[in-house]
Task: inverse folding
């Protein structure tokens, strides 16, 4: 899915106007944010999706506790407890949800 300017603007409005996005569990990492956006832009398919984690390529991404701790990558050395920007968390959730929806059997789709 192409990340259009209109979608970027909608996501910016979401994280700016919704108080749910105003709090985070840790520091924001620009490097992590860039890594997640690069993975999504290249079309890497989410795999091994569970209630708590998913894999994007070789990276295990935390996808629970949305939006507070959503999007941290567990196996990048030296990153510690850091998170992507709020807008990337919104995009990542949509990206994973869309991939899961596309994999559903046809009889379950609307």
Result:
């Amino acid at each position: 899915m192409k990340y259009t300017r209109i979608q970027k603007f909608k996501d910016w409005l979401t994280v700016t106007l919704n108080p749910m996005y105003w709090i985070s569990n840790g520091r924001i990492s620009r490097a992590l944010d860039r890594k997640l956006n690069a993975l999504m832009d290249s079309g890497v398919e989410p795999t091994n999706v569970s209630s708590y984690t998913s894999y994007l390529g070789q990276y295990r991404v935390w996808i629970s506790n949305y939006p507070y701790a959503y999007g941290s990558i567990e196996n990048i050395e030296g990153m510690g407890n850091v998170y992507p920007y709020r807008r990337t968390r919104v995009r990542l959730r949509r990206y994973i949800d869309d991939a899961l929806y596309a994999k559903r059997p046809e009889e379950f789709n609307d």
Remarks:
- DSSP finds three helices and five strands in the chain.
- The beta strands are 27-28, 46-47, 53-56, 59-62, 82-83.
